[in-house]
């Protein structure tokens, strides 16, 4: 029997049972054409109707702590696919109604013969290090200025990932880096990003926050670390990995 992840935009319906958190439900009543298969036998739908009298919604980010990394991956994939199908109802070139492809996951314009695949926006996120310290920045945005994180930004058209890393760091904090090293990646369904994580070594320049996106930035060591992003984020994983590698490194 098929099971359903039920989303309400960026939130997911869950039921807290004595056995743990439930986030997969039977097929909801009524017909809803907008469903996407996220894994074999698991579908996603948007709904504002609770699937049970005790169900409540939580932000997708919270399911990482409540249900683990796999639950977050599944819910994130559901969000990305539903957001894509919601925002690809009409052809971006001619405005005609799009049709869902049967053989692959794509929307198709019969007039232009264009196909629209699920859109993923790449973001580079870089931990800049200098000796045993790393650079953390606090943003100006009031929704994000209560913690410190590493520098991130969207990859622009025509850019390589390495160029995006160099440009973002120069724009946001005014320094240059060397020895850019890919570390890991993670989907980030807010709403459709792929976070690509790097380590880079400080090269030259004085830290100069741009004042637009970044309010302040400083070097921090493990001993004086401020409040950093939640465990669900790739930033948190990169910071942890940096300190783990530092501990294992031979003393010079
Ligand atoms: Zn068209």
Can you describe this structure?
The chain has 252 residues and is an alpha+beta fold. The chain folds into three domains: 85 residues, no CATH class; 32 residues, no CATH class; 128 residues, Nucleoside Triphosphate Pyrophosphohydrolase (Alpha-Beta Complex). It is 21% helix and 35% strand. The strands form three sheets. Strands 1, 2, 3, 4, 5 and 6 form a six-stranded mixed β-sheet that branches. Strands 10, 11, 12, 13, 14 and 15 form a six-stranded mixed β-sheet that branches. Strands 7-8-9 form a three-stranded antiparallel β-sheet, with no helix packed on it. The chain is globular and about 60 Å long. Bound molecules: zinc ion.
List keywords for this structure.
15 strands, Nucleoside Triphosphate Pyrophosphohydrolase, 252 residues, alpha+beta, 4 helices
Shape: globular
Order of helix and strand elements from N to C terminus: EEEEEEHHEEEEEEHEEEH
Q: Kindly report the average pLDDT value.
A: 95
Q: Assign a percent range to the helix content.
A: 10-25%
From the alpha-carbon coordinates, what is the Rg to the nearest angstrom?
Answer: 21 Å
Largest sheet: number of strands, sense, barrel closure: 6 strands, mixed
Tally of strands: 15
Beginning-to-end CA distance, first to last residue: 59 Å
């Amino acid at each position: 029997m098929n099971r359903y992840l039920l989303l309400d935009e960026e939130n997911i319906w869950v039921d807290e049972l004595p056995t743990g958190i439930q986030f997969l439900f039977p097929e909801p009543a009524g017909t809803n054409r907008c469903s996407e298969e996220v894994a074999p036998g698991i579908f996603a739908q948007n709904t504002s109707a609770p699937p049970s009298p005790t169900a409540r919604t939580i932000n997708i980010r919270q399911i990482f702590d409540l249900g683990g990394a796999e639950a977050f991956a599944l819910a994130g994939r559901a969000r990305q696919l539903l957001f894509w199908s919601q925002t690809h109802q009409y052809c971006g070139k001619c405005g005609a109604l799009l049709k869902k492809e049967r053989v692959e996951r794509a929307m198709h314009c019969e007039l232009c013969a264009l196909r629209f695949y699920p859109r993923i926006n790449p973001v580079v996120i870089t931990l800049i290090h200098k000796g045993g310290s790393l650079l953390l920045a606090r943003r100006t945005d009031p929704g994000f200025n209560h913690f410190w994180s590493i520098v991130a930004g969207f990859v622009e058209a025509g850019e390589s990932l390495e160029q995006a890393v160099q440009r973002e760091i120069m724009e946001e904090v005014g320094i240059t880096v060397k020895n850019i090293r890919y570390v890991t990646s993670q989907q980030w369904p807010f709403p459709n990003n792929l976070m690509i994580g790097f380590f880079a070594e400080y090269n030259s320049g004085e830290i100069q926050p741009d004042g637009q996106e970044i309010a302040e930035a400083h070097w921090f060591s493990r001993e004086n670390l401020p409040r950093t992003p939640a465990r669900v984020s790739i930033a948190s994983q990169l910071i942890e990995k940096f300190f783990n590698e530092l501990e294992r490194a031979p003393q010079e």
